[in-house]
Amino acid sequence: MQGHPNTELAHDLGTAPVGVRNRLRTGAAEVEHKLVGRLRGKPDTPPLPVALAALQAFQPLNPNNAGIHRLGDVGANNPWRSTRQLEAEAVAETVELLGENRSRCSGYLNSGSTEGNITAMWWARKRATSQGRLLRVIAPATVHYSVTKAVDLLGLDGALKLLPVDHNLQVSPAALDTALAESRRERRSVLVIATAITTATGTIDALSPIEEILDRHPDVPSGIHLDAAIGGLLVPFTEGWQPWSERPSLLSVTVDWHKLAGVPYSAGMLVFRSGAEAYGQPVAMISTGLDETVLGSRSGATAGAVWATLRSLGADGLTHRARRCVALRNSLLESLKDDLALEVHAPPASNVAAIRLSASDPAVGRLAAQLEPSSVYPSSVAGHPDDVYFPAFCMPHNTEDEVGRFVEDVRSALNAPRRKVS
Ligand SMILES: Cc1ncc(COP(=O)(O)O)c(C=O)c1O
Fold first, then answer.
1. Domain range annotation of the chain
2. Does 2 score more than 50 pLDDT?
3. Pocket test for ligand 1, best of 40, 146, 302, 351 (most atoms within 8 A of CB)
4. How far is the CA of 200 from the centre of ligand 1 (A)?
5. pLDDT tens sequence across 135-153
6. What average pLDDT does range 34-59 have in this prediction?
């Protein structure tokens, strides 16, 4: 595809030796071939020009945004004051997009939702320890693998309880209730991790039933962390999102600006109710006070890119992007269901359509081979060994033509008759 920003950048390598230039051009073309012009099984989208321009403006200065930055408390003598202020503003505005008052929350930019999930669990463990309790982490079986990574890193062996999900991939309320009752007996604090758009199936965990069950156990200190790596900049702009301010149990949300929003990696953001981070012992840094985060140095240029993207798109632009993704997904869903008579898992507010086949269906192998160039891989859900899912993501850069090509790919793998051209 011509004019793609990655290739333009790779062509603009100035004084680099010829061998270096050629190697980078070839590499960029390979990446471009994989990423552009098709629906994929991953939430990637090319960066927006405004995000790239902001990165280019700040990167030569190499600003360091280590730590958490709050509105109004960015030190006047700090050389990176301006990128820290941009980060604080971007966090405050994201909190408002999620439907909570900026004064009640804080947050910071990080490497992505893997780090967001690790941090939420780290802080939850600190809170539990400060209450003289052990932590129980409870999550539906569909939760992202970064949660099991965090269990390993944090030494939380045995603390994670994965709950079964039903055919709609929603957690069993009875299992959650039992896990809470067990936690009460074991005098544990509980962190429930819910997800807004899972990678493997596009599932959105319903928060209200989870909250209702937590409310039934007032003697168990508990809270919810929402992994909205993919859905954080989509679900809040669709019907049915209940503002964060109306969800008192929701302690923190991780959102990736490098997924739907068109900011280059690494642009994760963890936002949280103020106080969620204040437990335990912050690490004293040499010049900037206290650091409650996992990483040390982080690029302040990312703050510029996120801020510029947020301000340029505004709530209206983000809403438009999100709704366009869902509309494309609905068109894909219609073709897969109506033309090809497939079973598809596709929550209304998600940009993912996950084709569900029986694991014993001979079409599974053919579909896997056909969709492999699009990085759509077969996935399964714990507890449902008879089902295989093929998730397709409708991202902001995708088009109706690409949806049509994807449907034709599926059709040819299934050996289904071609659609009649009227
Ligand atoms: C639901 C979910 N959570 C967490 C992550 C991890 O995010 P990152 O790769 O930005 O660390 C992803 C990545 O795709 C994800 O889809």
1. 60-311, 314-414
2. no
3. 146
4. 11
5. 999 999 999 999 999 999 9
6. 94
Residue of 143, 144, 205 best suited for mutating to test ligand 1, as the one with most atoms within 8 Å of CB: 144
Pocket of ligand 1 (CB under 6 A): 112-114, 144, 146, 195, 198-199, 227, 229-230, 256, 268
Distance 112 CA to ligand 1 centre (A): 7
Nearest ligand 1 atom to the CA of 115 is 11
Chain segment 376-417, per-residue pLDDT in tens = 999 999 999 999 999 999 999 999 999 999 999 999 999 866
Q: 189 alpha carbon to ligand 1 midpoint, in Å?
A: 25
**Secondary structure of the chain in the HEC alphabet?**
CCCCHHHHHHHCCCCCCHHHHHHHHHHHHHHHHHHCCCCECCCCCCCCHHHHHHHHHHHHHCCECCCCCCCCCCCCCCCCHHHHHHHHHHHHHHHHHCCCCHHHEEEEEECCHHHHHHHHHHHHHHHHHHCCCEEEEEEECCCCCHHHHHHHHCCCCCCEEEECECCCCCECHHHHHHHHHHHHHCCEEEEEEEEECCCCCCCECCHHHHHHHHHCCCCCCEEEEEEECCHHHCHHHCCCCCCHHHCCCEEEEEEECCCCCCCCCCCEEEEEECCCCCCCCCEECCCCCEECCCCCCCEHHHHHHHHHHHHHHHHHHHHHHHHHHHHHHHHHHHHHHHHCCCEEECCCCCCEEEEEEECCCCHHHHHHHHHHHHCCCCECCCCCCCEEEEEEECCCCCCHHHHHHHHHHHHHHHCCCCCCCC
Domain 314-414: which CATH number of 3.30.70.270, 3.60.150.10, 3.90.1150.10, 3.90.700.10: 3.90.1150.10
pLDDT value at residue 10: 47
Which residue CA neighbors atom 16 of ligand 1 most closely?
Answer: 199
Pick from 204, 234, 256 the residue to mutate for probing ligand 1's pocket: most ligand atoms within 8 Å of its CB: 256
| C-alpha 131 – ligand 1 centre gap (Å) | 30
From atom 5 of ligand 1, which residue's Cα is the shortest distance away? Answer: 113
Question: 226 C-alpha vs ligand 1 centroid, how far in Å?
Answer: 12
Query: Class assignment of domain 60-311?
Result: alpha beta
Of 152 and 36, which is predicted with more confidence? Answer: 152
Q: How many whole angstroms from 113 Cα to the centroid of ligand 1?
A: 5
Please tell me the distance between residue 352's alpha carbon and the centre of ligand 1 in angstroms. 15
pLDDT at 264: 97
